[in-house]
Amino acid sequence: MSTTWLVTGGAGFIGSNFVRLALEESRADKVVVLDALTYAGNLENLLPYLEGDKRLVFVRGDIAKAPDVEAVFAEHAPTQVFHFAAESHVDRSIDDPAPFVYTNVLGTQVLLNAARRHATKRFVMVSTDEVYGALALGTTDRFHEKLPYNPSSPYAASKASADLLAKAMFHTYGMDVVITNCSNNYGPYQFPEKLIPLMIMNAFAGESLPVYGDGLYVRDWIHVEDHCRGVMAVAERGRAGETYCIGTENEQPNIAIVRKILELTGRDESLIRYVKDRPGHDRRYSIDPTKVKAETGWSPQIAWEEGIRSTVEWYRSNAQWLQRIKSGEFRSYYDKMYAGR
Length: 341
Ligand code: NAD
Ligand code: DAU
Hints:
- By secondary structure, this protein is an alpha/beta fold.
- The chain is built from 13 helices and 13 strands.
- The chain has helices at residues 13-24, 47-52, 66-76, 90-95, 98-117, 154-173, 195-205, 224-237, 254-265, 290-296, 304-317, 319-327, 333-338; strands at residues 4-8, 30-35, 56-60, 80-83, 122-128, 177-182, 185-186, 209-212, 218-220, 222-223, 243-246, 251-253, 272-275.
- Strands 3-2-1-4-5-6-11 form a seven-stranded parallel beta sheet, sandwiched between helices.
């Protein structure tokens, strides 16, 4: 039975890593990417495959627009949906929650409706640990699947709303939905507004590294490839209607990350600048991955020291990729590739 994976947000950071892995490991017969190419969507992330691999189809479209979504389902009849598309940056959600409600809440509902109408076999809702709120420093508390949602930022609230809509589709219509809640990702192709690529980019350029507040906020870092493999494991072996928390038990205070990047880029601590804190900043995240390991057999393969070293190397070897984002040139790929079609 042939498989067609619809990957929303497949031109973004995690989505493009997921598509690459799916194609390299022949996980699906066809992969259809639906992406609006917002400021965070970058076709360059998919370029070699778009040009040379007929199994990959790219569709520019907005998940919150029913006609865009309907056209993709009607033409490609996806067997599985992997829903990555989102507004994903907490700081932007603090500046303006509206696009977060539009894409993350309305967009998810439009997509769920289409998947239901077209009897898609499985809908994988890719979500975040931020739906659970914050943990205190100095405790061993961890996020797990039975915790109630308690989101702090507009971003987290919009993702929590999307998860609840997905769960409602399971309960009300018996739709086959699984949800993943993952911790902070790092790795190649991450848009340089997020902590790790921003610090790497600034360190290379000898520019200051802005650390929010006291720098002692803790995140639980996972390499993007481990996250993608976790999503695939849940898609294959997760139980319908269930939630799976994905993480690698790698808690780090932000300041330790920044120091590590200074070490790996050969810069010194004079670049560190403590700046005004993020409003409502969640103190600590930490994932208990017991359930996803036990039920799907997933386990992480990339240790932090190796992952961060290879990530810094990737950004060093792909300085042009960063440069084309800085200059805005990356936006021209769509016109270059699809002009006249
Ligand atoms: P990203 O911002 O890098 O990419 C988002 C992608 O979605 C972009 O390609 C963008 O063009 C597309 N998009 C945005 N609005 C759209 C719309 N209306 N219609 C179609 N496409 C649209 O995000 P990311 O960091 O790759 O995150 C992907 C998913 O994983 C998100 O759902 C996010 O909540 C979740 N997640 C992210 C992390 C993390 O650390 N980055 C951790 C856990 C979960
Ligand atoms: O936990 C999963 C979430 O991780 C995902 O759902 C989000 O999409 C993703 O953006 C990420 O959210 P964070 O807010 O944790 O990531 P960010 O990279 O923005 O920040 C990580 C930590 O670093 C956080 O404590 C804020 C801090 N920070 C961030 C930036 C951009 C700084 O100190 N300075 C900065 O310049």
